[in-house]
Amino acid sequence: MKYGMFNELMEQPESLRRTLKSEGDRMARISNEILECRRIYLVGCGSSLSTCYSARDAIAMNYEVNMDVMTGYEFYYHRQIDYSDSAVIFTSQSGETADTLAALRRANELGLRTVTITNEPGSTMASESMETIVTRCGREEAILGTKTYMTQLLALYRILFGMYSDEKSDEIMGELEKLPGEVEDLLRRTEVECRDLAEEYSGEDIFYCMGSGPNYGLAYKLAMTMLMEGALKHSCPLYSGEFRHGLIERVEEGVPVIFLESGLPGDELTERALRFCEKLGAENLVFRMSDYSDLNGLMSPFVLAVPLEWFVYYLAHFNGEDPGSTRHIGKVRY
Ligand SMILES: N[C@@H]1[C@@H](O)[C@H](O)[C@@H](COP(=O)(O)O)O[C@@H]1O
């Protein structure tokens, strides 16, 4: 059984290729423009907030930078926005989310430099933002964003790592170019094993999702939009270091916990939590960057997203749900 989301999932490599080609120069120009800014805000909601977390954490682990991540309404209601020489990058697949649009309007009123990354060139946010990067995916119908997630994260990494010129940024910029091929390969390699895993866990009601560094953002997306929206499972994301401040009291034999590991230094906390959960006999599902790719650990949200997409796609399927459907909220406003 193939759902509409299947084709969107398979279109990820091509969407990445098209976005790199058509938006490359514009992204490079924006990197140079925001380089001089004293502060950069990243603002989005849901899946589009998760990309902000991942990009911020990837950058903050390597560079000294004033960068804040906020949801749309956090930004809107925040009294102390630093608007002298600051830039805001808004992420919205639809370009219509009311929260993010309200934040964009406030930023424009305050005179901040505004950039929107969206998949909808005709959207309200695209027309009201000073600069727009259009992810070249074509329309995405599934509520569980795949190609729009991948390309949005690509755009954020390109713009933010593009502000620097050193060995690390050169490496990441080079690896971003390799992503379409890498994702193509992952889509092929990981479907069957993740379908089997989904079948095994299809009866579970709740999944805790843990990651550190750039994988916290992915844990957030996995819990909030993939498992809750896509597979209709209860879920909760957390920073690996937060394990011992709550979840440690709740984990017990048979409770499923998903660990996302990048191999970066912050993952010593993920490993520590994993060892503890092993001792308790929890159902540990570990997605390790080193099992899937040789790319830098900073690229793990792109890489691990693919097996997770298959896992969630089939988890929904084995529960008789369409992974791309939604019960209460629409994807794109027409
Ligand atoms: N249910 C959707 C989420 O799936 C989406 O991630 C979020 C942001 O949407 P957008 O990226 O279009 O702003 O909006 C809603 O909450």
Q: Which regions have little confidence, pLDDT < 50, spanning 5+ residues?
A: none
Return the average pLDDT rounded to an integer: 95
Distinct compounds present: 2-amino-2-deoxy-6-O-phosphono-alpha-D-glucopyranose
The main sheet comes to: 5 strands, parallel
Write down the secondary-structure element order.
Answer: HHEHEHEHEHEHHEHEHEHEHH
Major beta sheet, strand line-up: 2-1-3-4-5
The structural domain count equals 2
Structural class, please?
Answer: alpha/beta
Strand percentage, roughly?
Answer: 5-15%
Distance between the termini: 29 Å
Number of E-type strands: 9
Instruction: Please state the oligomeric state of the protein chains shown.
Output: single chain
> Judging from the principal axes of the Cα atoms, what is the shape?
globular
Known CATH architecture of the largest domain: 3-Layer(aba) Sandwich
The CATH topology of the largest domain corresponds to Rossmann fold
Put simply, the count of helices is: 13
Question: How large is the radius of gyration?
Answer: 19 Å
Overall helicity: 40-55%
InterPro entries: GlmS/AgaS_SIS, GlmS/FrlB_SIS, SIS_dom, SIS_dom_sf
Pfam families: SIS
GO molecular function, one term: carbohydrate derivative binding
Protein name: Glucosamine--fructose-6-phosphate aminotransferase
